[in-house]
Design brief:
Blueprint: H1 2-6, H2 12-23, H3 29-39, H4 42-77, H5 96-110, E1 114-115, E2 121-123, H6 124-127, E3 147-148, E4 151-156, H7 161-170, E5 175-184, E6 196-206, H8 211-226, E7 232-239, E8 242-251, E9 268-277, H9 279-284, E10 293-300, H10 301-309, H11 316-319, H12 322-325
The protein binds 3,4-dihydroxyphenylalanine.
Length: about 325
């Protein structure tokens, strides 16, 4: 046993010799002991069996550790086979949501928008009050908020609109910012809804920003992202923080607007909410609403990823099954 433990070898041949001496199927030491084992009296079998077993383990461990240290010295002494073919580097892939997020933010970056982020654990002011959600306003119920029980002023942000407020606190207009982030809502998980998802918010504040600027910016985005033939349409809507507000549809990129099962025969897909920043929001955040106007918009990344990749079960984006993720290897970004 101690002979095995103290054995040392510096070449692959010596290790092989050692292996043959103990483990050879024909006349190795262990085979010899196993043969002997058959002949010993029954009461000695247990003890001898254990000894043989621990010898076998010791020999295998020794061989492995000798091989390891041999490899180490070879790699440090530079004995490489320079003609050996290289090991292929296994490439990972970006998560589909990261791909879509990057594609969207890149389009806005080219228009001069700057990325800003904010905390996921927020307070009432940044998620609701500073965005013109009045106390007891029913619109607060539009979003099922996760509150921290012991302190209802601490909550998980339900939308990335809170980042608008963080930016307005720290910057003077002109402001042109694009804000990706993770948001949380108390929803049951299904193929169509999740309690965690991602949004991208945009905010532009300057002198003389008009609704036409908003429309043109979103049309440019839609054409860049979904293709040059894409059209947009705006439908009147309501958000506490914008006035007027609209919901934006893009012409269905799958059927070209003719109507298919993805757009449910309408030819249009809803992609985001937007509007002119309500003057109250500007004033609440110390920006002179007589001098400045602005527009804002917000979209769900999962929703856009579903349209882009045709993956209609939201849960797949969160399970991180490599068989799913591997399929995005070819998408660069
Ligand atoms: N925060 C809204 C939501 O989560 C989306 C949104 C709508 C953001 C209109 C905006 C906006 O900035 O102007 O449903």
């Amino acid at each position: 046993m101690s002979e095995v433990e103290n054995y040392s070898a510096t070449t692959a041949e010596q290790i092989e010799e050692f292996r043959i001496r103990f483990l050879s199927k024909k006349n190795g030491e262990l085979v010899r002991l196993f043969n002997e084992f058959k002949n010993v009296p029954a009461e000695q079998k247990k003890e001898l069996g254990q000894k043989i077993n621990s010898l076998k383990i010791a020999v295998t461990d020794k061989i492995n550790s000798l091989k390891e240290s041999l490899e180490e010295t070879e790699s440090t002494t530079g004995e490489f086979d320079l003609t050996a073919p290289g090991d292929a580097i296994k490439l990972g892939s970006r998560h589909p949501l990261s791909i879509v997020r990057n594609q969207i933010t890149d389009i806005f970056k080219r228009l001069g928008f700057v990325i800003s982020e904010g905390p996921e654990i927020e307070d009432d002011w940044h998620v609701f009050s500073a965005l013109n959600f009045a106390e007891e306003h029913p619109a607060r119920d539009m979003q099922d908020t996760f509150f921290i029980e012991s302190n209802p002023d601490v909550l998980l942000r339900t939308h990335t609109s809170s980042i608008q407020i963080r930016v307005m606190e720290n910057q003077k207009p002109p402001i042109r910012t694009i804000n990706p982030g993770r948001v949380f809502r108390n929803e049951a998980i299904s193929a169509r809804a999740h309690c965690i998802f991602h949004q991208i918010e945009g905010l532009y504040i300057d002198e003389n920003v008009s609704f036409a600027d908003l429309k043109q910016t979103l049309l440019h985005f839609a054409k860049e992202f979904f293709g040059p033939e894409t059209k947009i349409r705006l439908r009147p809507s309501y958000f506490p923080f914008t006035e007027p507000s609209a919901e934006v549809d893009v012409s269905c990129s799958l059927c070209g607007g003719k109507g298919c099962n993805v757009c449910k025969g309408t030819g249009w897909l809803e992609i985001l909410g937007c509007g002119m920043v309500d003057p109250n929001v500007l004033e609440l955040n110390g920006i002179d609403s007589k001098k400045y106007t602005g527009f804002a918009f917000g979209m769900g990344i999962e929703r856009i990823a579903m349209l882009k990749f045709g993956v209609n079960d939201l849960r797949l984006y969160f399970e991180n099954d490599v068989r799913f993720l591997d399929q995005f290897k070819s998408v660069i970004q």
